[in-house]
Design goal:
The chain is mainly alpha-helical. The protein has helices at about 40-50, 50-65, 75-95, 110-135, 140-150, 165-185, 190-215, 235-265, and strands spanning about 220-225, 230-235. It starts with about 40 loop residues before the first helix and ends with a helix.
Length: about 270
């Protein structure tokens, strides 16, 4: 589940406040993501977990499950853990292996181990789920690991590593899997929810792609905006980052709280 690879195309990005914002900081002083911790042992692991994005996409699991007529807490927890293993750990470790976009110092063997163990854990939980749900879960069990590998390794000519590929894999897919894990089938309601997750994930990409570009590839950004009343607003890296990352923070909290509302309503 990650959208961390920065495409070669241009874009704009998010940051902090003010009309009189200070000049852009050198790239070496800029964190690779707004949620990134200072470099260091356990902090590097926190960073590659992508906490706001991991919580965001796990929320789709909760929403999908809570659409079912009857919600099994054990199945919901199993699905959540499976996606945490596959997306939170395996996909993000694999992404960091592919060019070190977050600049962590985690040893390569550790990242490889997390990838393998994460995918194995997700598959094991999927197999256990088939024994309870039925064979309708099998296509999702096969497709899940394939999406992780195809997206993060840019397999098949990078056809999956696109905005729509990201939205389908990390938005729609969790909703559908969670619903099928509860009911053993798909319905119109689950497909509509999957479409909603797809569009939210596309919006996420529209914000995060230029933000990553500015944080990780732009070394200098200085400009001015002339207002009709004669005023001048300075434009720098932080001024461009502020609205993008502010929207990403707000949206991640919004989706998580929506999922929490679904869970409270259905499980109490």
């Amino acid at each position: 589940m990650t959208d961390d690879q920065v495409p070669p195309s241009s874009g704009a990005g998010p940051g902090s406040p003010g009309p009189l914002a200070p000049p852009a900081r050198p790239a070496s002083e800029t964190r690779p993501a707004f949620y990134a911790a200072r470099p260091g042992r356990w902090r590097d692991w926190w960073t590659i977990l992508h906490p706001p994005y991991t919580a965001w996409h796990l929320s789709y699991v909760v929403i999908g499950a809570c659409l079912a007529p009857h919600v099994s807490l054990s199945r919901l927890l199993g699905t959540l853990i499976a996606f945490l293993c596959a997306v939170g750990f395996a996909a993000h470790a694999l992404d960091e292996l592919h060019g070190r976009p977050l600049g962590t110092r985690i040893p390569t063997p550790a990242l490889v181990s997390v990838t393998v163990v994460g995918l194995a854990g997700a598959v094991a939980l999927g197999i256990a789920g088939i024994s309870r749900v039925g064979w309708t879960l099998t296509p999702f069990l096969v497709l899940g690991p394939l999406l992780v590998l195809a997206y993060n390794l840019e397999m098949f000519g990078g056809v999956v590593h696109t905005d729509i590929g990201f939205a389908l894999a990390w938005g729609s897919f969790p909703v559908l899997v969670a619903y099928v894990a509860q009911t053993g089938r798909l319905t119109i309601a689950s497909l509509i929810a999957a479409a909603a997750a797809l569009f939210l994930s596309l919006a996420q990409r529209q914000l995060s792609t230029p933000a990553r570009l500015i944080r990780r590839r732009v070394t200098s950004l200085v400009g001015r905006a002339a207002l009709r009343d004669g005023g001048i607003i300075s434009i720098d890296q932080q001024r461009l980052l502020a609205p993008l990352e502010g929207a990403l923070r707000a949206m991640s909290w919004g989706v998580v709280l929506t999922a929490a509302a679904f869970a409270v309503a259905r499980l109490t």
